[in-house]
Write a structure and sequence with these properties.
By secondary structure, the chain is α/β, with parallel strands linked by helices. The protein has a single domain, classed as Metal-dependent hydrolases (TIM Barrel). The protein has four helices and four strands. It has a four-stranded parallel beta sheet, covered by helices on one side.
């Protein structure tokens, strides 16, 4: 049986020292495909994720803006996301949650620009 990890942050710097070992353990456990989620605030961050997934078979990218980063949703950044979304290793893009409900302060999004960036994206 094979598995797909549909939400991983393998581009996080905390994996720099042992990313290859993490991928090897995932493969040994039957994980054949991993969707690496990139939610940054600059085109450079998304490009870094794309370079990383292109280095490994079975890795794919999802690009988008997390509500915590919604204040960075400029026309230029959204245009760059649109361009990057055309890359063959991008399976999903445009995550723009307008509401985040959680019990942890870090994940709670109360930024007023979150909803407006979503409206710009979906029209």
């Amino acid at each position: 049986m094979s598995f797909t990890d549909s939400h991983a942050h393998l581009d996080d710097p905390r994996f720099d020292a042992d990313r290859a070992a993490v991928l090897a353990r995932a493969r040994a456990a039957g994980v054949e495909r991993i969707l690496v989620v990139a939610s940054g605030s600059s085109a450079a961050e998304y490009e870094k994720t794309l370079r990383r997934v292109e280095q490994h078979d079975g890795l794919w990218a999802a690009l988008g803006l997390h509500p915590h980063e919604a204040q960075h949703a400029s026309k230029e950044l959204l245009a760059e996301l649109t361009r990057l979304a055309q890359q063959p290793r991008v399976l999903a893009w445009g995550r723009l949650d307008s509401i985040t409900i959680t019990t942890t302060p870090r994940a709670r999004s109360s930024k007023p620009s979150s909803g407006s960036s979503c409206r710009r994206r979906v029209g």
